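anyone seen this seq b4? input:
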Amino acid sequence: MAGVRLGRGAKRAPLGFCAKVALVILLGLAFIVIWSIFSAPSSTVLSSQRSSFDEIFDPDASPAVEKKKEVGESKKRNPSSPPKDRSGNGNGRGRGAPEKEKKEGGIEEKAAAAVKNETREAEGLNEEEREWGEAKAKVEGLEEAVEGEGGMDEDMEDGVDVNPEEEEEVDEEKSGGNKKNKKKKKKLGPLFDPGARYNWKLCGGRHGHNYIPCVDMEGGHRHHERSCPRMPWMCLVSLPQQYRPPPPWPERESKIFYKNVAHPKLSAFIKTHSWLNLSEEYLLFPRQQSEFKGGAQQYLNSIEEMVPDIEWGKNIRVVLDIGCTSASFGLMLLEKDVITLSLGLVNDQTDLAQVALERGIPAVMANLGSRRLPFPSGVFDAIHCGNCNVPWHSSGGRLLLEMNRILRPGGYFIISTKHGDIDNEEDATKHGDINSEEGMSTLMASICWNILAYKVDEVNEVGVRIYQRPASNDIYELRRTKEPLFCQENDKQDAAWYTPVKSCLHKVPAAIEQRGTDWPEEWPKRLETFPEWLGDSQEKLTADHEHWKAIINKSYLNGIGIDWSNIRNIMDMKAIYGGFAAALSSQKVWVMNVVPVHAPNTLPIIYERGLLGIYHDWCEPFSTHPRSYDLLHADHLFSRLKNRCKQPVVIVVEMDRILRPGGWAIIRDKLEILNPLETILKSLHWEIMMTYAKDKEGIIIAQKTTWRP
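predicted toks r here
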């Protein structure tokens, strides 16, 4: 009992208020010190990165396989090639620097490891600088590429917030009652889960190696309109047996590997057409033969004779060719500096658009139906429909009104048929909602398109008519009938994503500040001459053009290991002003500029410069065949898709579908996105050829392999 009383008597007196406050402050300071030591802030990690790109080390041979290296083991390099860096932080490792086991994905993790090895790296730094001093000139443009958006708001693009704030209701208790207040909250972006693991599988069922998710249906049939799967598309499209990379340009324009595009309906088509020949493993396209009996060159000469004002490669630069057959029309125009986009119709079961892309000719899949084509208004200098079987006069001429929307004011509409007499051919075609007396001439008169010339080409055995869209609204006052009605002034002509075709006539822009009042400069001057309707944006375009020209010349063409002789079809997955494509205009490539539907509408500017482009929502598959492109360029695509895609990994799956084996991807973005993205690419067995990072920006250069699960 005495011991108990003694223990109780030894209890301390309660602490005073001041003592408690002092104790809390001491504990808080201790917590802050401990937190600052054990949590590596981004500034600490980034401080370890080099401010230059002097050393780039060779990548591992297989990025999908983790390798272990013992401490003190030195990396072997090929002195004939510039060093490459896969560390993702801009830091090269010195000789003899120890390496820990690599982790998948790890741009920021590798940077953190580099801090620990900072001292050891410094020992080999001077030797590396001497050995690889010449490599800097080849890749110094990557620094500019990474710094391209430094200091910019990642949610702002061309002055528009592409990731707007959304209001949400928050319950707050005030004075004993509940009150709902609306607060603006910026959602987190679709950043990839760094801890996710992916087990890929091939697309099952009847989804073969030519599968287009939003076009093809089960059973080999096709949708009449674009219709995408309800669930995110997460399987990989298989490869054709004996697939081989296409020959380099220009060899591929005249021959391709038949196994790459083979299917039964194409085989049947080849047997009935003389302008393409199957010779052993190649599908050949004789240069003097085409779907036009006298050849495409004779056909072009005939058009020039009919309308001398059509100057190919000068005032006519961008052409839409409806109904992709042999694509010889666009191929011949290419020699005249005309870029022609072949529109492969979804009801073409022969898949000639895929053949055109394999040959290196621009093409895209679309449908002439109830929806607008994914192009802006008034952008094509000319539209061509050869051997045309499109029922332009059906549904009150709705399809022709869509041509009126996308054709530039003063632009040309060239149509040819095998029978020579368009009206008689139409009268012979019965449609449930069309009177037999209604023909093309009546329809053209109702929209005031002027027929410039009509000729039956004896050599090609086709009848050719050339129409011109009005360049002003004055002629509309002379219409005998007010049908079709004019579209309302508030109608958004450039709205073209899942937008129904309207049975109304769009007027020609009249105000000087409006796009379409003046014809662009002749090519190639229009590439770098910006019209007055751009206003203050002219300075932005000039800066953008110089920015991309420097990156292309200093880095992309020479410093990242791409053999450009094997590159023909390129896609810029998030184009703004077309600066990337313009900088490549002197190369033997073509670029499909994709403007995301949620981004500012800069696609008309791209066409004004004489380049190609299309609207698209990257939360859905793209309307093209598998293995269509040789190179994909994604500049801050993922960071601009916040609040858009439920599963952003579907974008990577789509990139894998549309990029051919051996094709390249250049991806620039935030480090927080590139880190897990590298993991995804490795899970697809893509080779990570080079990574580089500076501050919070980075770049990944990867190459797709032939691996399939």
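The longest strand covers residues 659-670. The longest helix spans residues 17-38. kinda curious what u guys think
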